[in-house]
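Journal club prep — side note

Before the paper discussion, L.F. wants everyone to see what a predicted structure for a comparable chain looks like in token form. Sequence:
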Amino acid sequence: YMAPEQLRAMRDAIDRKTDVYALGVTLFECLTLERPFQSETFEGLYNQILQGAPLDPRKLNARIPRDLATVIE
């Protein structure tokens, strides 16, 4: 649930937005029963968080309203 700025150890950039990121990841997992980023290694996971964009949560759960998916993303 670490935000990219936490992985980069950018202490000056860690603020309320970091908590909002963690909330988005939590909501994603609660609504899809999957994590937005998955990898077999920590390095792979960190690279996905830093470089990638999560899958649209509606592809994993079609019942998620579009507006809620936007908030999660």
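L.F.'s comment for the group: The mean pLDDT is 91. Keep this in mind when we get to the figures.
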